[in-house]
Amino acid sequence: xxxxxxxxxxxxxxxxxxxxxxxxxxxxxxxxxxxxxxxxxxxxxxxxxxxxxxxxxxxxxxxxxxxxxxxxxxxxxxxxxxxxxxxxxxxxxxxxxxxxxxxxxxxxxxxxxxxxxxxxxxxxxxxxxxxxxxxxxxxxxxxxxxxxxxxxxxxxxxxxxxxxxxxxxxxxxxxxxxxxxxxxxxxxxxxxxxxxxxxxxxxxxxxxxxxxxxxxxxxxxxxxxxxxxxxxxxxxxxxxxxxxxxxxxxxxxxxxxxxxxxxxxxxxxxxxxxxxxxxxxxxxxxxxxxxxxxxxxxxxxxxxxxxxx
Length: 309
What we know:
Blueprint: E1 3-8, H1 13-22, E2 28-31, H2 41-50, E3 53-56, H3 60-69, E4 76-79, E5 91-92, H4 101-107, E6 110-112, H5 116-130, E7 141-147, H6 152-162, E8 169-171, H7 181-187, E9 195-197, E10 199-201, E11 207-214, H8 224-235, E12 243-245, E13 268-275, E14 280-287, H9 291-306
Parallel strand pairs: 1-2, 1-3, 3-4, 4-6, 5-6, 7-9, 7-10, 12-13
Antiparallel strand pairs: 7-11, 8-10, 11-14, 13-14
Helix pairs in contact: 1-9, 4-9, 5-7, 5-8
């Protein structure tokens, strides 16, 4: 039986990327609201209830509305918005997060797709908290840079209109209240809010998320090898994993550590750098903010859910 997939918000950045990734597949049927009925709430409800799986690529309030329009117990949902990422009854759509997370997604009726910014830091921090190398109340700082496509259609249009005059490095969320903080805190197993300071660069997509660690105040200071081993062990042996861990290396720079390295793929590569004498470490995650950080993750979750549809 061919599964019917409805992308609610298919004309936005994430929706277009998902549709492109699915267009040539013969195992699914993409269903779409006719253009002339696109703003018709009744039409959206009709297609939401006709779908086997609905993928929501909408602002938060619109995503909540779409869920409320589903009147059956058969339509399953992947929500790419922030609306349900820490909500009860929703599986978090990061299959590699734990050994049983892919199974949880496979069996779920409701899946919350991760945000691009939290996913890399969660991938780096959760194994360390789980292994007891970092306490849950560790004062975490997250920074990095992503492509302007992460800001949605308005930012894309703004950057492309400005061309070379667009900012090369644009810090944002300077009120220190990024909307992804609850998600990052919950799934990294932290008991206090991290300090999160993201930035946008003058390139379309790709990102590097960085987590610097000042380890000296801990009662027991973990070595770089221990940090790397805990992260590597966490992802070792996972089937169909998109997360890979780079070898521990004492290097000053690498041309491979750049935000566009994995554009167009679903790969996330994790790096650990450490100076044991200084009791300092730097954790890096490199991935495509439109791939593993958004559309690619949604398709990965869809493929898991299709196994039980």
